Amino acid sequence: MGQRWFNVTLTGFAAHAGTTPMNSRRDALTAFAELALAVEEIGIAHRPDGRATVGTLQVTPGSRNVVPGRVECSVEFRHPQSDALEAMELALRRAAAAQGQRGVAAEVERIFDYAPIAFDPNCLARSERAALALGYSVKRMVSGAGHDTCYISKVAPASMIFIPCEKGISHNEAENILPQWAEKAPTSCLTAYLAPRSNRHNPQFVVLMKIFNIATNALLFSGLPERGPGPCARHCR
């Protein structure tokens, strides 16, 4: 997916919580609350592939008895289509500008723009054929996360092979995969690589695949309980 990151600053007026009537407030935090819901709606409007996230928030002055005068937050959009990312950004800017009705000024700064990446059709087709030849089910999908392969694709044909995680959880300590699942991705990858050169019914090829599977499981799951956290969950934060 392509990504766009923004820093958003909302500036109202810091005032005493007890002496400032509700109709006189320029509350930057309530403006942020409205903007955060607007960001969520932007993501929903661009389903199924759109992603919209408010990830950080800083409130100033940060006192329980002061109306917040300034809020700084991050907004991130992801989508596999550039025109959709453009529409999402325009919607964010409109929602931010609308906070002027609350007496709150908004500044939206785009700090990162990463264009969507389309992987090589031939690599995708070979990976798909390899998985089907091994009797696995396949589904073409868009990855929402960033990967090193995106950069490799700029200098060489590339694609990626994924396996499921329990409940779809990834990049979290709760992530879990099983050895038999982990076996399928590298097996498909090796089959795709060797397919033009070898016959999968050739005894030598079959032996090579078995050795590869054993080595893969030994590397990935050595010392781990059968249903313990997967490698990414153990090492990614």
From TrEMBL:
The keyword Protease does not apply. The keyword Hydrolase applies. It is an enzyme of class 3 (hydrolase). Coiled coil: none annotated. It holds the Pfam family Peptidase_M20. Keywords: Hydrolase. Gene3D superfamilies: 3.30.70.360, Zn peptidases. One of its GO terms (molecular function) is hydrolase activity, acting on carbon-nitrogen (but not peptide) bonds, in linear amidines. Its EC number is 3.-.-.-. Belongs to the peptidase M20 family. This is Uncharacterized hydrolase HI_0588.
